[in-house]
Structure formats: C-alpha cells, structure tokens
UniProtKB/TrEMBL annotation:
The keyword Hydrolase applies. Signal peptide: none annotated. Residues 48-274 form the AB hydrolase-1 domain. One of its GO terms (molecular function) is hydrolase activity. SUPFAM superfamilies: alpha/beta-Hydrolases. Keywords: Hydrolase. It comes from the Bacteria. This is Alpha/beta hydrolase. The lineage of its organism: Bacteria, Bacillati, Actinomycetota, Actinomycetes, Kitasatosporales. It holds the Pfam family Abhydrolase_6.
C-alpha cells in the first residue's frame, strides 16, 4: 500500500476536474439555477448580474436579489475586485462570458462605471440598469464626474490607507485605498438605514483603490444598449444633479426616489426591482 505524498495536489486536481465537468469545455453554467435563481420555462428570463460599488459588497444586493429570485430570475451578485476600472470591468466581463443566455447588467455607484465597460462587446447583454451609479463617457472617471456638480459629501469623509501595488499597476497609481470614516458613514452613505445596520456596514466596508476611481472609462456600452436609472434624491455620495446629467446623456429611463440615500437598493429595493423588470419587459 503506497502513501500519497501530495494530498493537497490530489484534492486540488479533484476540484478542478469537478469544475471542468460541471462547466463544460466552454465554461458555461449548466443551468440558470446555478446562478442563484429558478430557471424560467424555456429559458426566457435573463440572468441579472448585479455589480456593487466601493465601500460595499455583494450583500448590499440581498433584498434586490430576493425580489428577483421570487420573480423567477437567475441572479449573480459579482464580487467586484475594486482595484482598477479596466481590471474590474474585465472581471465582470469574464462572468458574462460564462452565461449562455440573455443578461441584464446592473451597477451601483462605481459598479455603474464597471458595467458601462463590461457590457461592451457582448451580444447577449440586453440592458443596463444604473442604481445611484456612475455612467461615464469615454475618457471620464468616477472621481471626475463626482465633482462635476456640487453636493457630494464624500471628499470630507474619506480616509485612506496605503496598500502594496501589484506588478501590473497602472503608472501613477498612488497605491491608496479609500474608506469612509466610520463616524460619518451613516450620514454620507446610508442615512435612511438604521444605525444598528450602518455600524456593521461601516466596520465591514470594502475599500476602493483611489487609482481605480480615477481610471478613465472606455467606449460606454450605453451608446449601443438601452439603459434604466434609479436616482435617489438624498444621495450624498453622487449628487442627484450628476446622475440626472448622466442619465439624460445616456437616454436612460429614469425613476427618482424621493428622500432615498445612496444605498437605495437596500432602503427601497422594490423600486430597484421594478426598474430591472422594466428593462426586461422592454428588451425581451
């Protein structure tokens, strides 16, 4: 009886083999149910890919996901790396590559800049939905757009921490992560959520690379795809005036949510779900 000197390699090999078998040679998901929702009869409903922004993670979409899954939509809440706009967009684009059917891309905050780029070049992406989000034009950055109109309280609430730059970091990247000061988090980011919830959000926030927020966008997917927009009127991160400017330029169909904060998908998820359903009904 022989012993296995490399048990970790055997385990890894088994996992890779199992993943290859499940995905197939093309890497496509075997069914809509694997994406987190119930497949519709005949595969009629698109997969909704939700992309979070900075200071947040995929859990911010939980209530939106629940509404979509209850309506029978397969859902993927992507883990946005929050490093560089080009790299983050390529990552989300690679997820879209694995989806054989139609897709609706939904972005919150900086996630809007990501879907603006990730949606480009995919014939199966049918619509874009922006939720308190950036919809940059070619060459524009999130930081640039945030300052185009007054009203953002984010600059005065930011704290930065250095991180080691990877070898492929773009020239000029300062190697700084941006956080919201926990003492100001609720007021700036999520003023219509309970303090018991925002304390946890502030402690677990995902930072975003300052270099990524300053990264220029490529040709925007909204030039060739229909788009929908949810604008919270009490947003203190991206001023509503900025969002109205971007929505009008993109020709988006807009819903404004009076008194809602930047995390409108958490405080008013039903509105966000309705906009996604509107995008589906208009593009099916």
């Amino acid at each position: 009886m022989t012993s296995d000197r490399h048990p970790r390699r055997r385990v890894l090999g088994g996992l890779l083999a199992a993943g290859t078998g499940a995905l197939g040679l093309g890497g496509a998901l075997p069914s809509a149910s694997a994406a987190g929702g119930r497949p519709a009869a005949g595969g009629a409903k698109p997969t909704v890919v939700l992309v979070h922004g900075v200071f947040a993670d995929a859990s911010g979409w939980y209530k939106t996901m629940a509404g979509l899954q209850d309506a029978g939509f397969p859902v993927i809440a992507a883990a946005n790396p929050l490093r560089t706009l080009a790299g983050d967009s390529a990552y989300v684009s690679s997820i879209v590559d694995t989806i054989p059917g139609p897709v609706i891309l939904v972005g919150h905050s900086y996630g809007g800049a990501v879907v603006t780029n990730a949606g480009r070049g995919h014939t199966n992406v049918k619509a874009l939905v922006y939720v308190a989000a950036f919809a940059p034009g070619e060459g524009e950055s999130a930081l640039q757009l945030a300052e185009q109109f007054p009203g953002s309280e984010l600059p005065g609430a930011l704290v930065t921490r250095p991180f080691p730059l990877p070898a492929d970091a773009p020239p000029g990247d300062p190697g700084l992560d941006g956080y919201i000061d926990p003492a100001k988090f609720r007021e700036v980011f999520a003023g219509d959520l309970p303090r018991s919830e925002t304390r946890l959000m502030a402690a677990s926030q995902r930072p975003g690379s300052v270099g990524g927020l300053a990264g220029p966008s490529g040709v925007p997917a909204w030039r060739s795809l229909p788009s929908w927009y949810v604008i919270p009127t009490a947003d203190k991160v991206i001023p509503p005036a900025v969002q109205r400017f971007m929505a009008q330029r993109a020709g988006s169909r807009v819903v404004e949510v009076k008194g809602a904060s930047h995390v409108v998908m958490m405080s008013r998820p039903a509105v966000v779900v309705r906009q996604i359903l509107a995008a589906h009904h208009a593009t099916r």
